[in-house]
From TrEMBL:
Organism name: Candidatus Ozemobacter sibiricus
UniProt cross-references to Pfam families, sorted A to Z: GIDE
Keyword Transmembrane helix applies: yes
Membrane topology according to the record: Multi-pass membrane protein
Alphabetized UniProt keyword annotations: Membrane, Metal-binding, Transferase, Transmembrane, Transmembrane helix, Ubl conjugation pathway, Zinc, Zinc-finger
GO biological process: protein ubiquitination
Family annotation (InterPro entries): MUL1-like (IPR022170), SP1/SPL1 (IPR044231)
E.C. number: 2.3.2.27
EC primary class: transferase
UniProt GO MF annotations: ubiquitin protein ligase activity; zinc ion binding
Protein known as: RING-type E3 ubiquitin transferase
Record field: catalytic activity: S-ubiquitinyl-[E2 ubiquitin-conjugating enzyme]-L-cysteine + [acceptor protein]-L-lysine = [E2 ubiquitin-conjugating enzyme]-L-cysteine + N(6)-ubiquitinyl-[acceptor protein]-L-lysine
Predominant cellular place of this UniProt entry's protein: membrane
Length: 272
């Protein structure tokens, strides 16, 4: 009982830090006013002219626009143009094993398990464009909020030459790396493969909160050098604030319940 109580207290502590993180995120979104690309560029240029060279402009900004890129990535699964994608292929299988029961007899059983046979994440710099201009974004280190475009389970073994269809996209498994490199161990029966992929697609509205800096000669929004958040989301500012506020409420309730439960169990164990 005491261990359950201690675990509940530790969990409450974790939720406390999650709550603080969400409160900080909400605070930044509320505090930083939306800029437009032209004003940012002109502000950075004015400071560079005054100082004699770029590299002196740095502040937290909020931008809203659409994603633009001349040489975008092509996502691996859905073959969509994007500036970021994260894909994975997970195999679900049944494993046969033996164990000894209470009577000392060896019993053969099966259990379901999963393993990841392929995964990849790629991103590249892109522009946020609004009605006044465009500003470069370096997404490294950002809290990304992409859209999931693929989440599909394909039953059966993934043999070479099989055709997989996702909506309007179809492709053959011939030549896919995991088909030739991943061989299921003996005693495993493959149930199927789950494909998932999330992307930041071209020409979608995007919300960006980060540090604008011209330290690299070109004005770029990137992860803050000091304190601050770096958010790239396909959600609107209003949606982000609503999600954070709702998350804070849920985490707060969970923290209180876990804390009271843990404290009660620990006290009860001491009394006993």
């Amino acid at each position: 009982m005491v261990y359950v109580g201690l675990f509940s207290l530790v969990f409450a502590g974790i939720l406390f830090f999650v709550k603080r993180s969400e409160e900080e995120k909400l605070g930044y979104i509320k505090a930083i006013e939306t800029s437009n690309c032209r004003d940012l560029i002109e502000e950075a240029k004015a400071i560079a002219d005054r100082m004699g060279k770029p590299g002196h402009f740095r502040r937290l900004v909020e931008l809203k626009g659409v994603i633009k890129c001349d040489n975008p990535l092509i996502s691996e699964v859905a073959k969509q143009k994007c500036v970021y994608y994260s894909m994975s292929v997970t195999r679900q299988y049944e494993e046969t094993y033996e164990e000894t029961d209470a009577q000392g007899k060896v019993v053969r059983k099966t259990r379901k398990k999963t393993d990841t046979v392929a995964s990849n994440t790629q991103s590249l710099p892109f522009y946020v464009e609004d009605s006044t201009g465009k500003v470069l974004i370096n997404p490294n280190g950002a809290e990304l909020d992409p859209v999931r475009i693929i989440d599909k389970f394909e039953p059966g073994e993934m043999t070479s030459g099989r055709t997989i269809t996702f909506g309007d996209v179809s492709f053959s498994t011939t030549g896919l790396p995991f088909i030739t490199t991943h061989q299921p161990p003996a005693g495993h029966r493959t149930l199927g493969y789950n494909f998932t992929e999330s992307i930041l697609p071209l020409d979608r509205k995007v919300y960006v909160l980060g540090e604008a800096s011209d330290a690299d000669d070109e004005l770029v929004i990137k992860i803050p050098r000091d304190k601050g958040r770096f958010i790239i989301s396909l959600k609107s500012e209003e949606e982000l604030m609503a999600a954070s506020a709702s998350g804070i409420k849920l985490v707060t309730m969970g923290m209180i319940v876990s804390g009271l439960l843990g404290l009660g169990l620990v006290v009860l164990s001491i009394i006993r």
